[in-house]
Amino acid sequence: MALAYSKKPTTTTTGIMPSPPQLLLTQDDLKKIAAYKAVEFVESGMVLGLGTGSTAKHAIDRIGELLQQGKLTNIIGIPTSKKTHEQALSLGIPLSDLETHPVLDLAIDGADEVDPHMNLVKGRGGSLLREKMIEGCCKKFIVIVDATKLVDYIGGSGLALPVEIVPFCWRFTAEKLRSLFKHAGCVAKLRVVGENGEPYVTDNGNYVVDLYFEKDIGDLVAAGDAMLRLAGVVEHGMFIDMATTLIVAGELGVTVKNKC
Ligand SMILES: O=C[C@H](O)[C@H](O)[C@H](O)COP(=O)(O)O
């Protein structure tokens, strides 16, 4: 599937590293391979956006390791979640924030879906708002995924498109979101956790509504703008035209594609 993506005019394949043929790699192995490849783009002195999730975690571990070995120096990390903040602190990565460093050299993060134009779904881990704020300020944004994340269109996995909303009258906002996309067979579900089904609360004190679609929602920019016009919506999980580089690890190897 990854190779088909290189035919799109907006991207170029800049490198393929065949995997050892007899190794059976797990999905987590593939995430780690993509993450380590991305860290090759990190240079000493950079201000880095540190992503969130099981794939980004490998990249942050690797950055910490290279710092400890003295192979990277003067790195400043801007974490995209409380969890990543804790991980980076534990690894001794110096941290800052957008107010002190409003322009970042590079961000590395995972994604839940990647379409053929390198548009993304993010936020199934709940961190979409801080991720979008930080990754929107980067000169370069490398997305790292295993090949299972590639989809033909946004929503095409059948899994959630997360939307962060304010808790106030959340049912009202969820219904407004569902109505926006009724043409696409949308189902809107509040994300819940624990045995009692308590609302999931983001790092920003908000709730998440997960949207599921039966069909392609079409124009992503129009869909995103329509969601943001709803007063209870804080941010949606579509990252449109933000990724500059996509690294995909699959059974056939690793592909690195740059947006033209
Ligand atoms: O909120 C979570 C983030 O957007 C993650 O980057 C995304 O969910 C991918 O996570 P993972 O690497 O664990 O699949």
Automatic annotation (TrEMBL):
The alphabetized list of GO BP terms reads: pentose-phosphate shunt, non-oxidative branch
Q: Which Gene3D superfamilies match?
A: 3.30.70.260, 3.40.50.1360
Task: Give the species.
Answer: Helianthus annuus
Q: What class of enzyme is it?
A: isomerase
Q: Which GO terms describe its molecular function?
A: ribose-5-phosphate isomerase activity
Q: What is its EC number?
A: 5.3.1.6
Q: Which UniProt keywords apply?
A: Isomerase
What family does this chain come from, according to its entry? Belongs to the ribose 5-phosphate isomerase family.
Descriptive protein name: ribose-5-phosphate isomerase
Pathway(s) it belongs to:
Carbohydrate degradation; pentose phosphate pathway; D-ribose 5-phosphate from D-ribulose 5-phosphate (non-oxidative stage): step 1/1
- PANTHER family per UniProt: RIBOSE-5-PHOSPHATE ISOMERASE 2-RELATED, RIBOSE-5-PHOSPHATE ISOMERASE 3, CHLOROPLASTIC-RELATED
Q: Which HAMAP family is this protein grouped with? A: Rib_5P_isom_A (MF_00170)
Q: Which reaction does it catalyse?
A: aldehydo-D-ribose 5-phosphate = D-ribulose 5-phosphate
Q: What is the lineage of its organism?
A: Eukaryota, Viridiplantae, Streptophyta, Embryophyta, Tracheophyta
